[in-house]
Amino acid sequence: LIASALSGPIAEVQKRQSCSALQLVHISGTTEVGLGTVGTPLSTALASAIPGTTTHSITYDTSAEYVVTVAAGATITANYLATQAALCPSQRFVLSGYSKGALVVHGTTLTSAVQAKVAAILVFGDPARNINSPWPINSPSVDLTPRDDSTSAQNIASFCNSGDVFCWPAGTSLAAHLAYPTDGSIGVAATFVKAKV
């Protein structure tokens, strides 16, 4: 009886906390768990730049398979955003993906009502950077050098280090692909988002 009485207020507090003005929804890369190497510092940077920002990590199969698991991740992401948007009608989202997570972002199909709630999209080391993909990244080449300038009218920042083995044409450097958490990209991403909300 006591547990039942206490669970109501706790659930209500959790619901209120989840309805922040802005929420980062991050999709991690291959073999990563939770927020992963990019999502963790990004979450901290956004909470600092825009106080009150909350974070949600999409849980999906991050194994090294890029068709079935990416499609499943996209469905999970779309379902989460639709549910969260219904729960918190005033909340806006930052959709972010690193490496395989960027592929999931590309594959995510949202209703126009949920799309309108996406304040910004961030992708890091996006393997589909040079592919013409549909929403939510309809121009993956936007902000070709986002650490130099993010002046695009679009709400997308695509971070791709020179030589990155996955996003740079003929790139061969794994180190470049792993550098986003420490090379200044996170701070620029947070500034980019702040300008969009």
TrEMBL record:
It comes from Serendipita vermifera MAFF 305830. The keyword Disulfide bond applies. The lineage of its organism: Eukaryota, Fungi, Dikarya, Basidiomycota, Agaricomycotina. The keyword Disulfide bond applies. It comes from the Eukaryota. InterPro entries: AB_hydrolase_fold, Cutinase/axe. Keywords: Disulfide bond, Hydrolase. This is Carbohydrate esterase family 5 protein. One of its GO terms (molecular function) is carboxylic ester hydrolase activity. Pfam families: Cutinase (PF01083).
